[in-house]
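thread from #wetlab-drylab

HS: before we spend reagent money on co-crystallization trials with flavin mononucleotide, can we at least see a predicted complex? here's what I'd submit
DV: go for it
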Amino acid sequence: MKIALINGSPKVNNSASGVILEDLKYYISEKAEILDIDFHKSVVSEEQLKILNSAEAWVFAYPLYVDGIPSHLLSCLVQLEKARLQNHNIHIYGIVNCGFYEGIQAEFALKILQNWCIKAGFTWGGGIGIGGGGCLSMMPKTKYGQGPKAPIHKALELITDKIIRHETQENNYVSVAFPRFLYKMAAEMGWRQLIKYNGGKAKDLKKQWK
Ligand SMILES: Cc1cc2nc3c(=O)[nH]c(=O)nc-3n(C[C@H](O)[C@H](O)[C@H](O)COP(=O)(O)O)c2cc1C
């Protein structure tokens, strides 16, 4: 069985989506052949279409952008919808990560992919909404199923079973196992550093731009 893992983050390096797909590989790799696809830009190449056509399942991992999906990914979906794929029995799974702590924030971004599946004639297999995505690319490697990523690993293990069996699951929402107030403090510290690095002032973060 061939499974395409599609990174739908515009970031080429250090994306949370990339970290999630690497962790998913740990669960899938001995059960199926993995095909890596990057959708960092808004165009799907002929080569990528050929690879995708050979897979029985596609797993999209992407960030939540303004409660929806990144615009470049939307453009890729429109192209996939129009492509003449021979393999129509493709199951689609979605893994959305977001900056907010609560994974449920990703509900509508998963529904967008689900609705697209109906329109494009693919089978929706379900998804995962992951909260606390902002810290995933900075986390040291932990043992699978342990540490702050434990709830994410559990959700990835469960969805792997569904993907391999060509089954569907209800969307599952998880967060990093890290206290919410510490996550918020770390995020605010990061924003202060970032604005200074870019020549601004920390107090500008509260400014109302008109
Ligand atoms: C333009 C933009 C819009 C975003 N909108 C949201 C949002 O509506 N809700 C949220 O929780 N996080 C939002 N985020 C944060 C990202 O979802 C978060 O940083 C995520 O971990 C990025 O994933 P990636 O590294 O895989 O690209 C937004 C980030 C950007 C750059």
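DV: The chain has two domains: 2-178, 180-210.
HS: ok that's useful, forwarding to the group
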